[in-house]
Design a protein that fits this description.
Blueprint lengths: L1 E4 L4 E8 L5 E12 L4 E2 L1 E2 L11 E2 L8 E3 L11 E5 L1 E3 L8 E8 L2 E8 L3 E5 L3 E4 L7 E3 L6 E2 L1 E4 L2 E4 L7 E2 L11 E3 L3 E2 L36 H6 L31 E5 L7 E5 L3 E8 L5 E5 L1 E8 L4 E11 L7 E8 L1 H20 L1
Parallel strand pairs: 1-27, 4-22, 8-25, 15-18
Antiparallel strand pairs: 2-3, 3-5, 3-26, 6-7, 9-14, 10-11, 10-21, 11-20, 12-13, 12-19, 16-17, 21-22, 23-24, 23-27, 25-26
């Protein structure tokens, strides 16, 4: 299928079925941008390709998700995903500090601590050891609450985070063990208690098999096998395609031009400030009768790679398919009207100041 792409962004298209088994066309437009402190994102010289499979931090053993694939047919809200390392204020070793992100009016923070352990001591029982001061900590789920427990030859995994630390069966602990304590905690500073549940904190993507994401996939039972396979279950929730931490799943869609603040997530800037580009990206189908239809795509994924000072933005359009098929797909972009008006107003104000000087 031919795509006429009038943008510098990377396009991709495929067809999918909705829950009523009606086909629709998915058009994905992905842009890679450079982060410059105090400015709007600027288009990168090299554009990242569309990702067709997930990528994990470690291919040798179970690890957290680094990049989600780009092939979701639809997302009901924008994913905000941050791959970053937390840096102590001033670069000085500290026992703990807050790091986080603000996108528009949405803020998510985590408390980062240095490593410590639970250890067993006579008379005292299990107790928390001292915190070792650090200068940086990767914000990955390997450092958050979770993990696995071996029990009677079986392995029980923490369903929300199987790669974390601190998840134990306290009844089966050997007093000679040393248990790592999670180092990415809730921003209120609540300390984990050995053997008790604790929230999974983070800023990066959650893998499809993990809860709560997996539960949104619906019911795959004998009725589904008999009557629906290989189509999606009737109770499938499209929020399954959202990969962000629940606190970073937007209830609507980012529109562009939102201000973003990274707090202690960048090596050079303790508070890194920048803006999303004020862009409208659109996709349209031209069918074999020459009829054209489409509209703006939704900005449904924001990936920030703080280590590389880059952001990946993905717009997605879902277009109905009719009997005359698809001759080609047109993709275009323009600056948003809000940005044009704001710039014109600023120019006018500047001209006025000059006249009255």
């Amino acid at each position: 299928m031919k795509i006429r792409n009038r943008t510098p962004l990377t396009p991709y298209t495929f067809q999918a079925l909705d829950l009523d088994d009606d086909p629709f066309q998915v058009v994905i437009i992905k842009g890679t941008f450079d982060i410059v402190h105090g400015a709007a994102l600027t288009l990168s010289m090299q554009q990242e390709p569309i990702r067709t499979c997930d990528a994990y931090w470690n291919d040798e053993k179970p690890s957290s998700l680094r990049w989600e694939d780009d092939l979701a047919p639809f997302k009901p809200g924008t994913d905000i995903v941050i791959n970053a390392t937390a840096h102590a204020p001033g670069g000085r070793p500290m026992r703990e500090w807050l790091s986080g992100v603000t996108v528009g009016g949405q803020t998510k923070r985590v408390l980062v601590t240095g490593p410590r352990v639970w250890a067993h001591a006579p008379l005292m029982g299990w107790a928390l050891g001292p915190v070792t001061p650090i200068t940086e900590m990767p914000i990955r789920y390997e450092h958050a609450f979770g993990g696995l427990v071996e029990r009677d030859g079986m392995v029980e995994v923490h369903q929300q985070n199987p790669v974390g630390v601190g998840f134990v069966d306290i009844r089966r602990l050997n007093t000679s063990q040393v248990i790592p304590v999670p180092t990415i905690l809730t921003p209120d500073g609540r300390v984990p208690v050995l053997g008790e549940p604790y929230p999974v904190e983070g800023l990066s993507a959650i893998a499809k098999p993990w809860l709560p994401r997996r539960a949104r996939a619906g019911t795959f039972d004998s009725e589904w096998i008999k009557n629906r396979h290989p189509r999606l279950p009737r109770d499938f929730d499209h929020a399954f395609y959202n990969c962000a931490h629940p606190d970073l799943m937007s209830h609507g869609f980012l529109r562009g031009d939102e201000e973003i603040r990274l707090e202690r997530l960048h090596r050079e800037h303790e508070n890194l400030l920048f803006r999303l580009p004020a862009l409208v990206v659109a996709a349209a189908i031209v069918d074999h009768d020459g009829y054209r239809y489409g509209g703006p795509a939704r900005l449904d994924t924001l990936y920030i790679d703080a280590e590389q000072s880059q952001a990946m933005l993905t717009w997605r359009a879902t277009l109905p398919l009719y009997k005359h098929g698809v001759r080609h797909i047109d993709i275009a972009m323009r600056e948003s009207f809000g940005a044009i008006i704001a710039r014109a107003s600023a120019t006018g104000a500047g001209s006025g100041d000059a006249r009255h000087a």
